[in-house]
Amino acid sequence: MAAIFQGVGAAATLSSSPSNSFDSNNSFLSPPRSFSVGKGASFSVIRSGGILNLNSKGRRAQQLISNAVATKADSAAVSSSSKPGHELLLFEALQEGLEEEMDRDLRVCVMGEDVGHYGGSYKVTKGLAKKFGDLRVLDTPIAENSFTGMGIGAAMTGLRPVVEGMNMGFLLLAFNQISNNCGMLHYTSGGQFTIPIVIRGPGGVGRQLGAEHSQRLESYFQSIPGIQMVACSTPYNAKGLMKAAIRSENPVILFEHVLLYNLKERIPDEDYICNLEEAEMVRPGEHVTILTYSRMRYHVMQAAKTLVNKGYDPEVIDIRSLKPFDLYTIGNSVKKTHRVLIVEECMRTGGIGASLTAAITENFNDYLDAPIMCLSSQDVPTPYAGTLEEVTVVQPAQIVTAVEQLCR
Amino acid sequence: MALSYLRSSSSSSANLKLLSSAVSIRRPISTDTTPITVETSVPFTAHQCEAPSRSVETSSSELLNFFRNMALMRRMEIAADSLYKAKLIRGFCHLYDGQEAVASGMEAAITKKDCIITAYRDHCIFMGRGGTLLEVFAELMGRRAGCSKGKGGSMHCYKKDSNFYGGHGIVGAQVPLGCGLAFAQKYSKDETVTFALYGDGAANQGQLFEALNISALWDLPAILVCENNHYGMGTAEWRASKSPAYYKRGDYAPGLKVDGMDVLAVKQACKFAKEHALKNGPIILEMDTYRYHGHSMSDPGSTYRTRDEISGVRQERDPIERVRKLILSHDLATEKELKDIEKEMRKEVDDAIAQAKESPMPEPSELFTNVYAKGLGVESFGADRKEVRATLP
């Protein structure tokens, strides 16, 4: 890990445009555009998908708007492009999923800060308050512990609340409710109560949002028994996972990413859901299995382009289901390629990658030709300075180097 | 005349018939529902609302029911004490004796459609909601016949069909849950209310005020009931709370202070609170009550209070004694009849314990059930889903 880090230390000096857009809606509504950074840098920064183009060979900057959709076109199976559907951004896909479920089932309601009249700080609940009224789309005061508790209490009676954390990090205040009540009530009541609640919100490292607003809570919540965790990464699976989570009888935590809300994709018109426990095959391959989720999927796909140019054939799987892991898909892949690289945004210590490494080693040790490599974020609070922040998360160049090392 | 409530053998009722006819005392029979008006021990103290009247309407059947229920609760808790000392109950066991009037009085004022949620001192409230002794004792001993199949324990008794939502171990966490229940009631337009019980110790939890704020904003039919037994585990209330007037803590929410050892006062207050909450939103009730046992079975209960204090309360304010005096003074039953009821309750408790002891421990496979809802078809074995191992191609 240290070797790879130093290798890209030189290449990782970028300046990204500051976009602290926590309260300004405009920046998230504007269409994705690309621009080159000055100072003779050879890299372009794309604000929409958080995709970096680190072109190690040539010095030309590339237009990458289409990549957000092109990534989807690269992938084989789970594509929606066969039917003419409609194009939308990821936050609109979430909103569509939520709205359809609220239409379908009167028991679905939304609680969160600024979800109602304001329309949601990331516009996921825009227009819902007008359509469904104040009793179904509820603006709460800033009291995460209690409104998460209230959502769980309401779920005990049969309502299906969707609780939004404005930023996942704020849900740390509700950890007791999520762990003890949400996760455990079905068990401690001997099966009397189910908690069909969905807890969702954006997390992950954004654009210079600071340490407290760049939390990756999946690592903290993963030990809680009784909950399911899923992470969405494309408009297609965002809508599908949102709908499946609402329909599930179990408490589901849906992890979104702050930087992925403006991804554009064409999704089917018809009603569909995504399996909550299934991983998504993004790009089938032969040489190495790369397991990833959420924003890191795009970094991996960027690296995959470079790897393909270099002659490698990586198999990229978006694990999507963080608890429980889809060891069936993963296992099949490991049996095929015999090499595993995990790319995650969690911190090194106690992250999803750590658990996944243990699970794969325990189950598929005989099929591995090399030790599992896990690329994670550094074990530091996320710094504000753009250059430092770039270095805390995994960049495509590190992924390329890791695959080269793994496949030696 | 037949004292039909006595389930004892026919011979004793025959004796009573003989006795009553011989002595020819005329008194209201126990199933009589003609109203009797009784004054509560002390008037209510109100905050931001009009206190209800001190005169409570009751009837002889209701009073005898109170006596019966409270005697059963008292017996049950004392039996639990012995079971704990015999190491049949392990872990934490929080006993409710002394506070029975709160559970009984509340039940008399509401229906089973109203929700109750409380903290860990939940055995008697579970009984009040219609739970059976077998379910309680089996759960305490961790047996299969327990209300939560033995997987919850003392602090996790639930009864969904009579809207008893438990049974919670973390202090204060049940109040937001209770406000969520009230939200669901308002959402479904049920015209029912939720009673969220907590203690004087939990009254200092922030989430309580958060939940109260949201309930007041959204006009939820939530009634927050502070069972003030004056000690938060080992800390007296004057050492833990700057303002021990818990009924006033709601500030903008009205509050009522009630003598929690007087079952009729509790009934009157809960009735008033239900009407108020359905119209005006949340209200706080402070029940001034007392627990004879320590905080839990691991606490002797005498290091932070004197034995004189405990026996003083027992002599002057015991809820069962108060009802006994009421019954005797109104001539609703004789002393012997009341003693017979207590004996009967003792027998019921003993029988239930014997039955619970026979119930087996849960199956080992029960470890993995109910982690997730059955609809998924998943019985989780952890993050790596071991059962998939065999089916890999």
TrEMBL record, chain A:
Keyword Chloroplast in record: yes
SMART domains given in the database record: Transket_pyr (SM00861)
UniProt cofactor(s): thiamine diphosphate
Pfam families recorded: Transket_pyr, Transketolase_C
Catalytic activity of the protein: N(6)-[(R)-lipoyl]-L-lysyl-[protein] + pyruvate + H(+) = N(6)-[(R)-S(8)-acetyldihydrolipoyl]-L-lysyl-[protein] + CO2
Keyword field: Chloroplast, Metal-binding, Oxidoreductase, Plastid, Potassium, Pyruvate, Thiamine pyrophosphate, Transit peptide
Localization in the cell: Plastid, Chloroplast
E.C. designation(s): 1.2.4.1
Quaternary assembly: Tetramer of 2 alpha and 2 beta subunits.
Protein name: pyruvate dehydrogenase (acetyl-transferring)
TrEMBL record, chain B:
Region Disordered: start-end pairs: 296-315
Signal peptide: none
NCBIfam families documented for this protein: PDH_E1_alph_y (TIGR03182)
CDD domains per the UniProt record, alphabetical: TPP_E1_PDC_ADC_BCADC
Composition skew (Basic and acidic residues), residue ranges: 305-315
Single annotated GO MF: pyruvate dehydrogenase (acetyl-transferring) activity
SUPFAM superfamilies hit by this protein: Thiamin diphosphate-binding fold (THDP-binding)
InterPro entries tied to this protein: DH_E1, PDH_E1_Alpha_Subunit, Pyrv_DH_E1_asu_subgrp-y, THDP-binding
Protein function: The pyruvate dehydrogenase complex catalyzes the overall conversion of pyruvate to acetyl-CoA and CO(2). It contains multiple copies of three enzymatic components: pyruvate dehydrogenase (E1), dihydrolipoamide acetyltransferase (E2) and lipoamide dehydrogenase (E3).
Residues covered by the Dehydrogenase E1 component domain: 69-364
Catalytic activity: N(6)-[(R)-lipoyl]-L-lysyl-[protein] + pyruvate + H(+) = N(6)-[(R)-S(8)-acetyldihydrolipoyl]-L-lysyl-[protein] + CO2
EC numbers, comma separated: 1.2.4.1
Assembly and interaction partners: Tetramer of 2 alpha and 2 beta subunits.
Cofactor: thiamine diphosphate
An individual GO BP term: pyruvate decarboxylation to acetyl-CoA
Protein name per Swiss-Prot or TrEMBL: Pyruvate dehydrogenase E1 component subunit alpha
Class of this enzyme: oxidoreductase
Keywords: Oxidoreductase, Pyruvate, Thiamine pyrophosphate
